[in-house]
Structure prediction request, 122 residues.
Amino acid sequence: MTVTPFSPQPARPAEAEMAGPFPPDLHDVRHLKLKAGLLLLWALVSFVATYFARDLQSLVVGAWPLGYWIAAQGAVVVFIGIVVVYCWAMNRFERQDAERLLAAAPDQPAAADSARSDGLHG
Prediction:
């Protein structure tokens, strides 16, 4: 069945309405703490460090003032670090979730196959 912009949408199951807009695992406390910490680090680097960069102009690293390095290159390096930490932590959370699924149902081999098919990396 093809859906055109003018055709009525098929009815969704009632469970989808009860679940809300996001799956519950997106709101896990571990994920929220990670996101909050990285967002705080981003705000500190973006606003606080660059605000005080002008005061650090008197310190010289190599041939360039320290304020220049913090404002220009330091923020970019920290942002790349934020992305790397987020990726590493999310992979770790996925491995922990997969191990928890396998430990919950050790006698059911279908659980291990469904964990792998859900995109969880081991």
